[in-house]
Write a structure and sequence with these properties.
CATH class of the largest domain: Alpha Beta
Number of domains: 2
CATH topology of the largest domain: Rossmann fold
Number of strands: 16
Shape: globular
Radius of gyration: 20 Å
Structural class: alpha/beta
Strand content: 15-25%
Helix content: 25-40%
């Protein structure tokens, strides 16, 4: 959202200071008194777990200093990773934490930055949310934005303005004509102090399962000292038997392996086919209806708190920040 095109080369560069971002949408002054703070200034593909913690600390500082809500301007590529991380790290939120970005740079006629930022500030200043969320265009037109739960959202198109979609549940709400309308149950703002639980284990690997995949990648990860592995399995959460030796070794070494699905919609079920039951016998943890990137971030957070296998399993299967649900919708929205 804080970028512009260098027309001589056609490249997009981060360019606006926080103050310039504010001046980009003067209507913001009618909504709220803004204070701008720079936590970091990097393209989102360069985000790290350390920067997630830094952002969380800045968010907590702002809310504990009396801010009614916080808007985090973020690049769209890895916004869902950051929204997941903040969802697990921030405790007892006293106001909304709203991530917002733009698919088109803010100096282009087709930019979505204006409506996205205006809608994000509307949610932060006028709603009673006590969750981390993502606010982005809900259609290709400049008519409304959707409010997505931070642990349920994914960027599903490289360039469309309505690229962000809530997966396995509908959006939390929408912003239209300056009004916030909530569409499903949500956590409301609390009272007291916001706390940051930023203990993360960054040595977690997210790996996509492919036909004929050998065990060497997983074995190498174990030898390199990775503390947890998340697999994007096929279908209901399957992996070829060529991976079984590595999975058995991971279980022997106490390295948790979490299974998600490449299908995104629906849920992992390792009880249907024999392959799934074999994976369960090797200690693989089914991620239910969690998105792969959410399971990846959550496993970092869980391993930052415990390495005990049963505790890891228990926490991964416990709904901590709206990332799990007992049932998934039968079809995508």
């Amino acid at each position: 959202i804080a970028s512009r095109v260098v027309y001589r080369t056609g490249e997009v560069h981060t360019a606006f200071s926080p103050e310039e971002l504010y001046s980009l949408v003067p209507e913001l002054a009618e909504l709220a008194r803004l204070e701008t703070v720079e936590a970091c200034s990097v393209f989102s593909e360069h985000m790290t777990p350390e920067l997630w913690v830094r952002i969380a600390e800045k968010v907590a500082e702002g809310l504990n200093a009396g801010a009614k809500g916080v808007v985090v301007a973020h690049g769209t590529d890895t916004m869902a990773y950051t929204s997941s991380a903040l969802s697990f790290m921030l405790k007892n939120l006293t106001g909304p934490v709203v991530l917002v970005g733009a698919q088109r740079s803010s100096d282009r006629p087709s930019t979505d930055a204006h409506l996205n930022l205006l809608s994000a500030v509307t949610v932060a200043s006028r709603s009673d949310l006590g969750e981390v969320c993502v606010v982005m265009h809900g259609s290709m037109n400049d008519d409304y934005c959707l409010i997505h739960r931070g642990t349920r959202v994914r960027k599903c198109h490289t360039s469309r303005r309505d690229a962000f979609v809530s997966i396995n549940e509908g959006p939390l709400g929408m912003v239209k004509n300056g009004e916030v309308k909530m569409l499903r149950e949500y956590r409301k703002r609390g009272e007291g102090r916001v706390e940051v639980d930023g203990r993360l284990e960054p040595r977690v690997l997210l790996l996509k399962v492919t036909p004929g995949m050998g065990a060497d990648l997983l074995l190498s990860a174990l030898e390199l000292g990775y503390k947890g592995i998340v697999l994007e399995g096929t279908g209901l959460g399957h992996a070829p038997e060529t991976l079984f030796p590595a999975l058995k070794r991971a279980e022997e070494e106490g390295i948790p392996v979490v299974m998600t699905s490449q299908c995104l919609w629906g849920r992992v079920n390792l009880h249907v086919y024999s392959t799934g039951r074999d994976l369960l016998k090797m200690g693989v943890i089914p991620a239910e209806d969690m998105l792969p990137e959410v399971a990846y971030v959550k496993l970092m957070w869980v391993l930052g708190h415990t390495r005990e296998p049963q505790q890891v399993r228990r926490l991964m299967l416990q709904n901590l920040a709206g990332e799990l649900s007992p049932r998934s919708p039968p079809t995508p929205p």
